[in-house]
Amino acid sequence: MEPVNVAVIYYSATGTVHALARAAAEGAEKAGANVRLRKVRELAPEAAIESNPAWGQHIRDTTDVVEAALDDLAWADAVLFGTPTRFGTPSGQLKAFIDTTGPLWQQGQLVGKVYSALTASTTAHGGQESTILALSNVFYHWGGIIVPPGYTDPIQYQSGNPYGTSHVSGDGPPGEVALEAVRYQARRVVDTATALKIGRAA
Ligand SMILES: Cc1cc2nc3c(=O)[nH]c(=O)nc-3n(C[C@H](O)[C@H](O)[C@H](O)COP(=O)(O)O)c2cc1C
């Protein structure tokens, strides 16, 4: 059987979610999947971007990452979405991409795929779970199969978010615990998508 296809689709202004998304892509690849790492289009005005040197720098550092397209969703058996929290909700940039998926939704092309989400916020109680749950609302509408990490691996007792990998960026960039947690989350996504693929082919 062909390996499952996994798309990691994210938005990151200053690099935190990008680091998590890269680790998710690594984890999915290591678990045997074909992987596409994709950033969604930046929509903020130039003046806003340049008001934060880390934001502009991150854009320049990630010019090699391909922008997400609807085909990435159509191609994927499983999708991991990453976004920083914005007042406890997903970023407008990721939501804008999601809001272009109407045609795929109408054709039933988003149904039955595995979906999972990860996030980052500056503070520990800054809305990580509400951000992931907001993305889950989309997955329900798509008829998706939501695969959270839960407490299904010892790393989850260190990283501590059963909803999806979540990093507190106020503590610095993602360290080995967060990166290992997101690699684990990706592996669980791949394992579930593979089991579904085998089951559906039987
Ligand atoms: C408009 C805006 C709203 C934000 N809202 C929150 C928030 O509600 N809680 C929080 O802890 N951090 C909040 N943040 C901070 C980011 O979520 C945080 O810095 C995140 O780790 C950035 O990820 P990135 O480096 O991938 O862009 C906000 C940032 C911006 C610009």
UniProtKB/TrEMBL annotation:
Pfam families: FMN_red. Residues 6-190 form the Flavodoxin-like domain. It comes from the Bacteria. Signal peptide: none annotated. SUPFAM superfamilies: Flavoproteins. One of its GO terms (cellular component) is membrane. Gene3D superfamilies: 3.40.50.360. GO terms for molecular function: FMN binding; NAD(P)H dehydrogenase (quinone) activity. NCBIfam families: flav_wrbA, PRK03767.1. Belongs to the WrbA family. PANTHER family: FLAVODOXIN-RELATED PROTEIN WRBA-RELATED, FLAVOPROTEIN-LIKE PROTEIN YCP4-RELATED. This is NAD(P)H dehydrogenase (Quinone).
